[in-house]
């Protein structure tokens, strides 16, 4: 494993077939669907195909998922994604999910820090960004802690049960 994608606590690695069950659990967690674009459950068949077909070349697939793994015992505790890769403008979106059992322990900060190093130093991106629902204070605090700037409010960006919610576009320019 490249030292670029790990520290003494975590490593980021590509999804493996043995990640199927945990991905199935996370992708079908309806409590977090409001923060993303999911509108229906994922089948194990679809997720198995995703793992098998996952590209490790972000220039071809325009996205890249890493599993977040504890170095100590190799437990998979979350995933972190680069998505909507734009090579011409040297930018990419970021999404992160930490399993409920592992939240509020600093792992999201460490994972994002590792991903930033990879994106800025290896991929040579100029910026990373995320679109975060205004009500998701935990994610907004994560990005603020990692020095992402509040760039703009996207009005009525996220559909809720009975109305729309604003979202915050946060971005970090390569230091």
User: How many β-strand runs?
Assistant: 7
Structural class: alpha+beta
Q: Largest sheet, order of strands side by side? A: 1-2-3-4-5-7-6
* Topology as a string of helices (H) and strands (E): EHHHEEEHEHEE
Gross geometry:
globular
Strand percentage, roughly?
Answer: 25-35%
Return residue spans where pLDDT drops below 50 for at least 5 consecutive residues: none
Characterize the structure shown.
The protein has 175 residues and is of the alpha+beta class. Helix content is 27%, strand content 33%. The protein contains 5 helices and 7 strands, in the order E-H-H-H-E-E-E-H-E-H-E-E. A 7-stranded mixed β-sheet has the order 1-2-3-4-5-7-6. The protein is globular, with a radius of gyration of 16 Å. The longest helix is centred in the middle third of the chain and has 16 residues, at 107-122. The chain has helices spanning 20-27, 44-53, 58-61, 107-122, 137-145, and strands at 10-13, 64-70, 76-86, 91-98, 127-133, 149-159, 164-173.
Summarize the structure in short.
This protein has 175 residues and is an alpha+beta fold. It has helices at 20-27, 44-53, 58-61, 107-122, 137-145, and strands at 10-13, 64-70, 76-86, 91-98, 127-133, 149-159, 164-173.
Walk me through the topology.
Elements lengths: L9 E4 L6 H8 L16 H10 L4 H4 L2 E7 L5 E11 L4 E8 L8 H16 L4 E7 L3 H9 L3 E11 L4 E10 L2
Parallel strand pairs: 4-5
Antiparallel strand pairs: 1-2, 2-3, 3-4, 5-7, 6-7
